[in-house]
Amino acid sequence: MAQLSIGYKDFFVPGQGQRVTVASYHGHHRVALMVSNFPSEGVPRSVLTRCGGMKGILNFAGATTVKEEAARKDQFWYFQSVFGGNPDYPFQTYPFGAMSGGTRVLEAGLSDGSPTGTMTIVEVPGLIHRLDPCVRTAGHAPRTAKTLGYEGDRSSFSLAEEADTNTIANPDIHFLWLVQQNASDTSGWDGDLIAYHDLMDIIRLSGEGEAAQFFYSGGGVTAKEIWLSLQRGFPMLLPRGSGRIVDNFIRVLDGRFDLVDANHEVLEQIQADPTAMGNVDQVTVVDSTDPRQAQRWLQDHGFGEIL
Amino acid sequence: MPNLQLGAWLRMCSIAISRADAVTRVDLVRLASSLLKAVVRVTGGAGHMSADEGAGVAQLLAEALGGVDCLASVLAGATMVISRPEPGICAECDRNRTYCPLHAGAATISHRKPGVMDVLCELARLGALGKTVGVAPTINGPRLYGGSIIIENRPDEPHYTILDERAPVCVLAQFNTDRPNLTWFDEALVCLDYMDLLRREGDHRSLHLVYNGGEYTRKEILHVADLPHDPVNPWWIVLVEDSGRAATEFANNLAWRASHPHVVSCTKAELTTVVRQMGFAPQLQGV
């Protein structure tokens, strides 16, 4: 097996979760934070201006918590192999925009002094940017009831805190768009879905490139994202074998409802009326052990070329 | 992705709630995607330019912005000035005076007058990669006449103004449906909104390129020149000093220019070199 361009421990340096400070407005900081009300303000023009130069946009959605180390490494290998970091699968990315939830999940709390990042879907844009700096990166996240900001002794902008993890703004993205209902009200982790789908629609309409979705594993929120993307008609890539909702959705596409092992309203809705799925012809299923298949899809949609 | 062709898009927007609504999101993404992080607003004369002042203006300005190699975002008006029909001799057969039955209607003279906004069509015609958006305010309420959208038609003027359907992307701004009327200065303000966003969020540099112009151009020069000074990214203004009227007047006002160091003056002959040296167009090969 060929050695990847970037080692896992070079990317997630043990003990270095990275201090992430966010700065509103002027573009000379690494992670710019833009907060806006949605739907009342629509997609802010400041966010769209920062999307300038993205020749198309590819959103990565899926699991934001991966418990097992082996699964993290598999995911890290897969995405690095797909986007040109594996000499066995040479690939040249074009200067598109890579977007995701814009967070980083740290394994330990910030207070113990040794937080380390972990591989999840939201790390993919930063990983692609490290492989090819021409790719610009963006994040979108809802302001949930758990969003903490710089509260207490936190030196990083903290988006949520669980018992054993802490979620901060991802240090490897250019800007983070934080969506809230309004200054008083918070939302759930699905509070930004329509907002970022609208952003993708605008980029698609601008004629600057394709807007597409790359799913990998995931749970209930990802199911809603699949549903929304089906309705909007975005090209979607689903790697078979990536796990959970993606695999269940592929089983539904195959007509194997008997094999679906998750209860979710979206899957139930599809089971009740498969014709309601929408633009199912836009869905491409690939094998998660063969990066070439995903590369062919990326090439067909103008995100890069196989070398 | 190829550049948009002539007459690709017309968007209508109302600014009753917020003038920012005229900054259409899709066009903002286009402008922000220019290969050169620079936005140029071309402003100045149209209907009231003399024949000498207007001769070759579109070609001159397009060439100054790099011609086919233009990589910047360009904003200008999306209008066209038409002189009123006058009785004349048929240009085809040189016989009939007011109406030529052989060449239906050809015995009237109704020609298009050149204006600075023609630069958008010229860049599109050249196939330049620069991103262009034309902005047109509704002055009297848009009306359809003879297949064109009339923007302004004042009986006391020897010409009328229509929407230039050749502009690749045109934003037609009105106040609201019931009260569409805006002024020509609103065109300048809408362009300024686009430029301000591109400067603040897109790291673009900006240039107001002024050729000739009248009352509203004068107002626009004063407005832009007195914006809060940013020493890192000035609101550059280039006045074409031998283009006539407003541009010449301000270029010759040395006291005013001394207090506005971000205002540059040059002749038509120097314009291409100056714009390129300022970094708003690619340098010529071998220069």
3D architecture notes:
- The complex is a heterodimer of chains A (307) and B (287).
- Chain A is of the alpha/beta class.
- Chain A has one domain: Rossmann fold (3-Layer(aba) Sandwich).
- Chain A is 28% helix and 21% strand.
- Chain A has nine helices and 14 strands.
- Chain A has helices at 8-11, 45-50, 69-82, 124-131, 193-205, 220-232, 244-253, 265-272, 291-300; strands at residues 23-24, 32-37, 57-62, 91-93, 97-100, 103-106, 136-142, 158-161, 166-169, 175-180, 211-216, 236-240, 283-287, 304-306.
- A nine-stranded parallel β-sheet of chain A has the order 1-2-10-7-5-3-11-12-13, sandwiched between helices. A three-stranded antiparallel β-sheet of chain A has the order 6-9-8, with no helix packed on it.
- In chain A, helix 3 (69-82) crosses helix 9 and helix 5 (193-205) runs parallel beside helix 6 (220-232).
- Chain A starts with 7 loop residues before the first helix and ends with a strand.
- The longest helix of chain B has 19 residues, at 184-202.
- Chain B has helices spanning 25-32, 51-54, 57-64, 118-126, 184-202, 215-225, 245-252, 254-258, 268-277, and strands at residues 9-14, 38-44, 73-77, 79-83, 86-87, 108-109, 112-113, 131-137, 143-145, 148-152, 159-163, 169-174, 205-211, 235-240, 263-266.
- Helices cover 29% and strands 25% of the residues of chain B.
- In chain B, 46% of the residues are buried.
- Chain B has an eight-stranded parallel β-sheet with strand order 1-12-8-3-2-13-14-15, with helices on both faces. Chain B has a five-stranded antiparallel β-sheet with strand order 7-4-11-10-9, with no helix packed on it. A two-stranded antiparallel ribbon of chain B has the order 5-6.
- Chain B is built from nine helices and 15 strands.
- With 287 residues, chain B is an alpha/beta fold.
- In chain B, strand 10 (148-152) and strand 11 form a beta hairpin.
- The two termini of chain B are 30 Å apart.
